[in-house]
């Protein structure tokens, strides 16, 4: 039976989620909610569902399984906490747009509440719900990467000074950490997905002269060195339209290990795998790609639209709940989103201390449910 869904927040992302729920067999979109009457009425009429201006009213009058929180707010996340907590208190499973919250303390409370109530809390960390990411996981699980040595990730908005315009939206204007809070959940979640927990963070954060000259306070370029729990080294570069990106496009991830290396380009488009050279090929200038000299393995996904990540991620959330997976096994869970926020807060702390090495706040422990935990 399809899961009954209600959506809160109907700007662009909320309407995108509505379209996806309407086209997914695992979802039954029942109602939508927004404080702006024109927005909610338009979406409700389009999909033939009921409209509400109050989440409380929607929860009291509808038999819902899931509340999909698509509100925004300052730094894209200051309106996530209240509706998510209200839905959890009402006993509903919750999917929240990223970041989980614009405040790490609120995010910790959201994760703790979901765990205490035995509910699913997920976050739209959609960047690794892609065919290239699935292929990368196959390489890892098959031992084709081996022990991870390093991870390099570039992600952001490829642009430059000629196209720059100072932010005037109240969501971002005047907030120096807006880019970090609104965006770093994506790259940190991807790095952690493939390489595990981060134990150390060191960051250098800046903004180019063209932002300084117009008193744009947004810290738009961030360079982060991390150490993973498995002792691999990691590096993240994220910037918000300060310069055009080169190789790999706006989104590139390279994970290298003792048996091989993969690189994903433009998130959804392509993955390349380089095996470590055989003893016969090692040091051979004619076989620079490793292996037996046949070159790297390139897999094109056939996708070019980043928007394809949204239905794939939302379907995974619906699928996990439908299948009743252990809460600790929920893909892109609230705890996963909290991890990304803890690393973001460590970035800000490191920056404020002149590039000091910072240990992120520990994540809540996984206890497991005796009803679902296997032998």
Helix/strand class: alpha/beta
**Main beta sheet:** 8 strands, mixed
Look at the structure and give the CATH class of the largest domain. Answer: Alpha Beta
Low-confidence sequence ranges: none
- Mean pLDDT, to the nearest integer, reads 95
Could you name the CATH homologous superfamily of the largest domain? Dihydrodipicolinate Reductase, domain 2
Describe this entry's structure for a reader.
The protein has 375 residues and is α/β, with parallel strands linked by helices. The protein has 2 domains: 3-125, Rossmann fold (3-Layer(aba) Sandwich), CATH 3.40.50.720; 128-308, Dihydrodipicolinate Reductase, domain 2 (2-Layer Sandwich), CATH 3.30.360.10. It is 32% helix and 23% strand. The chain is built from 11 helices and 14 strands. The chain has helices at 12-23, 37-47, 55-61, 81-89, 104-117, 131-141, 178-183, 185-195, 209-212, 309-323, 334-352, and strands spanning 3-8, 27-33, 50-52, 66-69, 93-96, 121-123, 148-157, 198-206, 221-228, 233-240, 251-257, 260-265, 270-275, 297-300. The strands form 2 sheets. The chain has an 8-stranded mixed sheet with strand order 8-9-10-7-11-12-13-14. Strand 5 (93-96), helix 5 (104-117) and strand 6 (121-123) form a beta-alpha-beta unit. Helix 1 (12-23) crosses helix 10 (309-323), helix 4 packs parallel to helix 5 (104-117) and helix 8 (185-195) packs across helix 11 (334-352).
